[in-house]
Design goal:
- This protein is of the alpha+beta class.
- It has 3 domains: 194 residues, Up-down Bundle (Four Helix Bundle (Hemerythrin (Met), subunit A)); 74 residues, Helix Hairpins; 142 residues, Histidine kinase-like ATPase, C-terminal domain (Heat Shock Protein 90).
- The chain has 10 helices and 7 strands.
- A 5-stranded mixed β-sheet has the order 2-4-5-7-6, covered by helices on one side.
- It starts with 5 loop residues before the first helix and ends in a 7-residue tail after the last strand.
- Bound molecules: adenosine-5'-diphosphate.
Amino acid sequence: MPRWSGTARRLLLAFGALLAVFALAALLTLRGFQRVHDGLDTAREGAESVRLALELASAVRDQYAHQAHTIIIGDESHLGFYEAAQKRVLDLLPQVRSRAATPEELAWVDEIAGATGELDRVFRERIVPAVLRGERADVKLEHDRAQLLVTRIQDRTEQLVDGFEAAIARVQARVEASERGTVRGVLALQLASALLALGLGLWVLRSVARPIARLRAGAARLAGGDLDAHIAVDSPDEFGALAQQFNAMTRSLREHQEKLLQSEKLAGIGRLAAGVAHEINNPLGVILGYAKLLRKRADDGTAGDLRIIEEETLRCREIVEGLLDLSRPLPAHPQPVDLRELTDEVLARLREAKLLDGVTVTVEGSAVARGHAQKLRQVLFNLVRNGAEAAGTGGRVDVRLGSASGAAEVAVADSGRGISQEAAGRLFEPFFTTKDHGTGLGLAVSLAIARAHGGSIEAGAAPAGGACFTLRLPGLPGGIT
Ligand code: ADP
């Protein structure tokens, strides 16, 4: 069974709802037609009933006319016609009876039947013998009775016709009401389907067309080289997921480009530095040598000036060395390096150089990494020296060694002020420094060394409030630390 996406499911539902409204409208129309059709049938039946009732009235009048002719002519010559008229009345009576729908109409038909029977009896049993005997007075009397019966029959027939016509009018009113209802219902459904279609269109525009347009615009910006392109689609559907993936992709592209830029910058600086290092290093060595020599012979005032020359020359050499470190490849064969031993060595050197005076330093744990002791020593030296400088006199630096998921870790935390906002994004940039006599190369060189080992350095906040730099390096294959 195919797996429908959220948007496809919603589209299917919306179009299904539209189709259902159309189907309902069609059903309503069909039902309306059916009602009108049924109503017309009933009206046709009603008209037939009216016709039969009128025909009955005419047959009774015919019957009476032949009675009258018999009386006027005074013989039996019209009796045959009378018989035929009488037969017609008798044929029509059951037909009219079958059309009577109410008890009242049935009673009227019964009354008509009784009256026509009576009329026939009066004619056959009294009028005809009186006519043949020539008894004018009796004939007149019976004729009056017959006339009364005919009037009653005509009245009832008229009532029947009125009843049938009223039924037809009722059916017609029902048909018209049903017609109006159907038209109204179909119109309402048409309106509903138009509104639904409009809503569907708007929804498609909002939840499909717009996100697609935003995704396209974002992709176009990315294609144009804008790595800050961000797509603001946060709907909980495929488009939202796609936008998230797109944003993640641009973020990672940006990070990769930044790393690439950084390493290209470093490589460029390194190439430049390597080109001039020999030329500068030698004169620097000569300057340093002469400065030291002259200082020994000089009086106090000149010795102070020469010390400054000496210090600044040393700083220059430090910068040149740092630049060279950025470009120097790692030696070929990495060895297991005991990071604890290396840390202790670094601390001893820093103490010797009086860089840890007034700072409490603690070391805990152990870790072994694969790499080059000399290079890693330089990284640890930079991290601990930075920590001690940040902590200052009376502060502390805590070094924690350990291993996690096959990697050796060294975390250097200090009690300083932490990483300033200004420094946060630029810590590892070459020449970025906030110190008066800093070179801004310590962290850049350290990161280059860590990366060349396949590791990383992460800057964060220390529990004591200062900064914490964590060096991660590939551990030994068996995880021995
Ligand atoms: P430098 O020490 O010569 O300034 P680095 O590359 O070692 O060069 O450091 C760059 C900058 O990073 C420092 O100037 C400082 O602003 C910041 N920094 C480094 N270590 C710390 C730390 N432990 N606490 C606060 N800021 C630090």
